[in-house]
C-alpha cells in the first residue's frame, strides 16, 4: 500500500511540474488519434495539471466531466479509507442499484455532445 501511495504521489508531482499541453512525453488519446473524435477522457491530463494548480476554470475548459468525477472519487476514498473513529462512516450516496446505468447514460451523452460541432456543444470539447 505504501508503494502504491509513493507511485501515486510521484504521478501527481509529474503532472504538477510538467504541463501535458506543452510536452510530448505524455500519451495521446488513442481514440482521438484513430477516429478524430473526442472520448470521455480527452483533456483529462490537462485538467489534472490545472486542478493541481487550483485552476478550476482551466479544468472545466479541458474536461467538464473531470470535476464531478474527481469529487465522486474523493468522496468514495474518504468514505472507504478514512473513517472517523467512534462514528459511523459517511452515508453511501454512490452505490445504488441505478448508479451504473446513470453513469453510463451521463458518459455516453457527454461523449456524443462534446463531438457535436454546434454551439453550445462546442463548449464541451477540450481546448
From TrEMBL:
Keywords linked to the UniProt accession: Membrane, Transmembrane, Transmembrane helix
Transmembrane residue ranges: 56-78, 99-116
Keyword Membrane tagged: yes
InterPro entries: DUF2752
Protein name: Uncharacterized protein DUF2752
Provenance organism: Arenibacter echinorum
Higher taxonomy: Bacteria, Pseudomonadati, Bacteroidota, Flavobacteriia, Flavobacteriales
Amino acid at each position: 500500500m505504501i508503494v502504491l501511495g509513493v507511485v501515486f504521489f510521484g504521478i501527481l508531482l509529474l503532472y504538477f511540474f510538467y504541463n501535458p499541453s506543452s510536452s510530448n512525453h505524455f500519451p495521446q488519446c488513442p481514440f482521438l488519434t484513430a477516429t478524430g473524435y473526442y472520448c470521455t477522457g480527452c483533456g483529462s491530463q490537462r485538467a489534472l495539471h490545472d486542478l493541481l494548480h487550483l485552476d478550476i476554470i482551466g479544468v472545466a475548459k479541458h474536461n467538464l466531466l473531470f470535476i464531478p468525477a474527481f469529487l465522486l472519487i474523493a468522496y468514495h476514498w474518504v468514505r472507504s479509507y478514512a473513517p472517523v473513529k467512534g462514528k459511523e462512516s459517511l452515508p453511501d450516496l454512490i452505490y445504488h442499484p441505478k448508479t451504473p446505468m446513470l453513469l453510463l447514460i451521463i458518459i455516453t451523452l457527454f461523449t456524443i455532445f462534446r463531438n457535436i460541432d454546434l454551439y453550445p456543444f462546442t463548449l464541451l470539447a477540450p481546448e
